[in-house]
Model the fold of this input.
Amino acid sequence: MNKLLRLLVFACLALAPIGASAQMGQFKALYLYNFAKNIGWPEADNGSEFVITIVGDNELTGELEKLAKSRMIGSRKVVVRQAATALAADKSQIVYLGESKSAQMSQLVAGQSGNNVLIVGGKPGLCSNGAGISFVPVDGKLKYEISQRNIKKFGLQVSAKILQLGIEVN
Done:
């Protein structure tokens, strides 16, 4: 019995990081969906699809695809794409650059010049490299930094709600 208890405890501890990682992906997916709903998109940006491209985070792609099956942005169908590099992320309303690809932020920002796009980084401090929003862990919780200046450079408007909930940086 004691052996069984130890095995059960070990199994729970071994699976905990997987569960926490999956939960983090769910939180990021919900944040991205809410960013999409609360950003002011230009009138010209009214196609039938709302495209979110993920660079470097397969888990987040899967979580967003689950959300996209049952939710819309206004009257637009959510389409989730995955790109191998920042330069391959085109024709999107939101581009998320995962932590493992964060060194490509300057390429992403330069490549999106002239587009109405929200760039979101998966690593703290990426707003200083041009991201509009950057995820940061704070006391074990997922929060985000937000640069209103960077978002406006891409022709988007930020709602007061998004600003209030984030950590504003310039």
User: Anything to note?
Assistant: Residues 53 and 81 are 5 Å apart (CA to CA). The domain at 28-168 is CATH 3.40.50 (Rossmann fold).
